[in-house]
Amino acid sequence: MFKDACAELAVVPKPEIKLEESAVLFAGMSPVRVPGVFTTEVLCDVSESRRVDLLALKKIGGGTWFDYCREYQATLDSWLRGVGFYRAQSRAVVVDSTNPLSVLVLLSLRTPERTVAFTIVADKDSTAVEQNTSYTFLELARRKGIPLVLASVSQVKELEFLVESEGLLVGFKAFERLVAYFVGALPVLSDFMRSDLRLGVTVHTFSAVMAASGLVFTSPSEIFRLQIEQLSGEARPDELVTAYLLASGSNSMREELVMAFDRFTRGLVNLITKDNALETRADEVDLYDVIILFGLKDARIQLSLARGYERIAKETKNLRVEELEKIV
Amino acid sequence: MKRSFRLSGILYRGKSYGPGSLFIDSESKKIEIEYQKGFIRKHQVRLLEFDGNTSRPLIKDAKVILGDANVFLGSPDDSKAFEMLVARPNVEGILKEVEESIRRFFLSRASALVLRRAVGLNPREALLAFAEDVPDGRDPLEIMISNSDAGLTRAIDEMNATLEARLKEVPPEVSNRIYAMIYAVGLFQDSIDNRDDARRKEVIAFLTKVSPGKYLETESANIGVENAAVELLKSAFDSFSVP
């Protein structure tokens, strides 16, 4: 009797694994942690170390994106698999693409599907090396088919939000707040990005108004008008081919916001699709956040970096996009 | 346990050595023959050693044939007693071997349980600890679990092979008790893993019936799943008696 029962001992129950559905990797910038989202970072340090929430790579003195990719591609790849990054249904990387680590991160992404990259990109004021790094990042993202949400260095500098309980957030602090919003809405945002990928739209820009209220804006339509002004440095209205509204506000505001968004998008002559995702604020205060992601017809931003890229690529053969193929 | 018999005579390779003694270790079945030497100051001198495991002594009435030697036991009762000792399986030796194979199985099972708990509690930590050993393109978690399962299957197969081979030599009631002990230790391991105090106490009560002994130290809930089985098994085997 017991002999037969002993066979049961050979079977131990399978572990029940609960992992967050969204995962975000930050590279070259401090992570913004959002509850319920697996957040981790890769950075440069004096020595190498690996934890679940951090991969520190030994800094390469004067290292370019090529040096980091050649040295650490396998390390980052194994670590990403190890921390279960690919087990998340929705994934994002948040990078400053002027930082060499950004190219390493993109190169190491094994399965780019369901991954969105929130990226700070170089602009005309950036150095040629920064432009070369940023350009390489954008080109690699294009080749891998990774949707991008871009903010130029100058756009980040000019961002400012008045946020209840936090006060006025300016520049990078405001960008971090925005990233937190995107990360919190990652599953919805990933759906929007997948829809755009099917239409061949991979590059996005955004406009945002946080904690808006009836005291400042007489109607939601005014907010959307302001958003076009915010975009003026980044894209022209005729370049916008898709528009996705991410908003949160009180229940009473929802309908009004959607109607205003519809009116607003009618003015975008080249728009091919639009969608919205509204969230009810738990506090029921009459404040609302309005963020619009715009899909762009072409990668004008990337073209604006081509000169800086070529300048460096001509002098340093390693720093050409084609060199990445040799590493992989 | 060693037992001695008086010998009335010894004939070894054609030479007679007179009276002497036969010593037999009931567990190892090692047999030693000594003969008496000297007239005034008599003393025993070892004549030969015989391994009762490799070849069985032949017993005919009071005569025992040990290879090249014929020795003569003092009485028919001695002959009977000697025959029983030779025929009796080396239960202690068998139990020792069986215990070791069971111990190895429970250590492997404990590793599997610990791994599953670690993966359940902090999957990313567990994955990261293992990821470096995983071949390119494979899922670390699947490999981790399948390696653990394979290790456990191997361990139970090895244990079963030892049990099948060795428990044939002991009476069925002894082997049944051993299987009951294995099952109880497995349940105990699970109760530690599941932090099920009531179950743990039930298992100890059951085990006390199978092999009456002291299990106080292993009753503690603080004992780890790795040590639980090893400690319990040791206590059970230490107090395991064969009638």
Structural summary, described in words:
The complex is a heterodimer of chains A (328) and B (243). Chain A has 328 residues and is α/β, with parallel strands linked by helices. The mean pLDDT of chain A is 88. Chain A has an 11-stranded mixed beta sheet, sandwiched between helices. In chain A, helix 2 (65-82) packs across helix 3 (100-108), helix 3 runs parallel beside helix 4 (128-144) and helix 8 packs across helix 9 (251-266). In chain A, 39% of the residues lie in helices and 27% in strands. With 243 residues, chain B is α+β, with helices and mostly antiparallel strands. Chain B has helices spanning 76-87, 91-121, 123-131, 140-166, 172-193, 197-210, 225-238, and strands spanning 2-12, 15-16, 20-25, 30-37, 43-51, 58-60, 63-66, 69-73. In chain B, strands 1, 2, 3, 4, 5, 6, 7 and 8 form an 8-stranded antiparallel beta sheet that branches. In chain B, helix 2 (91-121) runs antiparallel to helix 7 (225-238), helix 5 (172-193) runs antiparallel to helix 6 (197-210) and helix 5 packs antiparallel against helix 7 (225-238). The mean pLDDT of chain B is 83. Classes of the chains: A alpha/beta (328), B alpha+beta (243). The interface between A and B is medium-sized, with 27 and 33 residues.
Describe the protein's topology.
The complex is a heterodimer of chains A (328) and B (243).
Chain A: H1 2-5, E1 22-27, E2 37-45, E3 49-50, E4 54-58, H2 65-82, E5 90-96, H3 100-108, E6 115-121, H4 128-144, E7 148-152, H5 153-158, E8 160-163, E9 167-170, H6 172-184, H7 186-198, E10 203-213, H8 220-231, E11 240-249, H9 251-266, E12 273-280, E13 287-296, H10 300-315, H11 323-327
Parallel strand pairs in A: 1-2, 1-5, 2-4, 5-6, 6-7, 7-10, 11-12
Antiparallel strand pairs in A: 3-4, 8-9, 10-13, 11-13
Helix pairs in contact in A: 2-3, 3-4, 4-10, 8-9
Chain B: E1 2-12, E2 15-16, E3 20-25, E4 30-37, E5 43-51, E6 58-60, E7 63-66, E8 69-73, H1 76-87, H2 91-121, H3 123-131, H4 140-166, H5 172-193, H6 197-210, H7 225-238
Antiparallel strand pairs in B: 1-2, 1-3, 1-8, 3-4, 4-5, 6-7, 7-8
Helix pairs in contact in B: 2-3, 2-4, 2-5, 2-7, 5-6, 5-7
